[in-house]
Design brief:
- The protein is of the alpha/beta class.
- The longest helix is centred in the C-terminal third of the chain and has 18 residues.
- It has one domain: Uracil-DNA glycosylase-like domain (Uracil-DNA Glycosylase, subunit E).
- β4 and β5 form a beta hairpin.
- The chain is built from nine helices and five strands, in the order αααβααβαβαββαα.
- Helices cover about 40% and strands about 10% of the residues.
- α6 crosses α7.
């Protein structure tokens, strides 16, 4: 089955967001995940990221030259009743930026969706394109920064500009009990997001590490953060992150979510 070009789930285009202040206003007013996904997809608040994502979509990789790239910010994926959230870094230039689905179309996605399937959180071990039949259960997957960045490295300013989207996304998950954070960048990015969402943060803030657990109290009850090395090729090719290591973190997440009810 050929790749399917992604369309906004909520219908007509609702207008672009072009400034950091606009992100704050737009995210605050979002009533549900479908509207959030549409507004994220219409964000133009970071000029460097806009230029890069659109250049990549225009030039393309040779192996994908016949595909129409998404070339816009990439929304999260997963149901509103999810008790687990998985938060990564940012879309890959020829992965999510191409397919329009988070963690889809690159090796990082191969790892995370296979692990979610093994954990019983996905109905299939692969995510290749919109319309491939993938469905997630009890988990929402999102990124700290929604646009593909040059050299896979968003700036702190870009991270902070994007953070209201993630804060609102987490707030729209009323059953949320566990957040699996992939990598040190996501760990750092998440603390101001959680503060904005009303969680009481520990001082000093715990350092990132694989398998680190932190319990937080917030407006919807207790949430546990679980740290995991990122599913980047740098980590998976070198053996810093193995399948059993990732499986152990997701097994712990599902156990915690089940205990929380």
């Amino acid at each position: 089955m050929p790749p399917v070009t992604r369309k906004l789930a909520t219908g007509p285009y609702i207008g672009a967001v072009r400034t950091p202040a606009g992100v704050v206003r737009s995210a605050r007013a979002v009533p549900d995940l479908a509207t959030l996904d549409a507004r994220v997809s219409g964000c133009y608040a970071c000029p460097r990221l806009v230029a890069w994502r659109e250049e990549v979509a225009r030039v393309k990789r040779a192996s994908f030259r016949d595909e129409e790239y998404w070339g816009r910010p990439v929304p999260g994926l997963g149901p509103a009743d999810a008790r687990i959230a998985v938060v990564g870094l940012a879309p890959a230039a020829h992965g999510g930026n191409r397919t329009g689905r988070v963690f889809t179309g690159d090796r990082s996605g191969d790892w995370i969706f296979a692990a979610l399937w093994r954990a019983g959180l996905a109905n299939q071990p692969t995510s290749t394109h919109i319309g491939d039949g993938l469905e997630l259960t009890d988990v929402r997957v999102a990124a700290s920064v929604r646009c593909a960045p040059p050299a896979n490295a968003p700036t702190p300013e870009e991270r902070d500009t994007c953070s209201p989207w993630l804060a609102r996304e987490l707030a729209l998950l009323p059953r949320l009990r566990v957040i699996v954070v992939l990598g040190g960048f996501g760990w750092t990015a998440l603390w101001p997001v959680l503060a904005a969402a009303g969680y009481r943060l520990p001082r000093p803030r715990p350092a990132f590490g694989h398998g680190v657990e932190v319990d937080l109290d917030g407006p919807l009850g207790r949430v546990t953060l679980l740290g995991s090395y990122h599913v980047s090729q740098q980590n998976t090719f070198t053996g810093r992150l193995t399948e059993p290591m990732l499986d152990a973190v997701l097994s712990r997440a599902t156990a915690l979510a089940a205990t929380a009810g």
